[in-house]
Amino acid sequence: MLTTSGNEFIPEAGTCVSWKIKKDELGELPGNEEMVKKYWDMLDAFAYSFIWFWVQR
């Protein structure tokens, strides 16, 4: 669940920027939205893993 408190942004667990937020930023998408969502989720999972790899060192 997305939580906002003032200017503070707390993403959903396990994500950096969820697809729901990114889709709202992008607006109407031409073409296959499911394909874009699939690759966004993969990229977001990589970013989340990368950040936690360096945080835990």
Molecular structure report:
The chain is mostly helical and 57 residues long. It has one domain. Helices cover 54% and strands 11% of the residues. It has helices at 19-26, 33-55, and strands at 3-5, 8-10. β1 and β2 form a beta hairpin. The mean pLDDT is 88.
What is the typical, i.e. mean, pLDDT? 88
Question: Count the strands?
Answer: 2
Radius of gyration: 13 Å
Provide the succession of SSEs: EEHH
Structural class: mainly alpha
First-to-last CA distance: 28 Å
How many independent structural domains?
Answer: 1
Q: Give the strand order, joined by hyphens, for the main sheet.
A: 1-2
Helix content: 40-55%
In short:
The protein has 57 residues and is mainly alpha-helical. The protein has 2 helices and 2 strands, in the order ββαα.
Write the layout of secondary structure elements.
Layout: E1 3-5, E2 8-10, H1 19-26, H2 33-55
Antiparallel strand pairs: 1-2
Key descriptive features of the protein:
single chain; 2 strands; 11% strand; mainly alpha; 57 residues; two-stranded antiparallel sheet
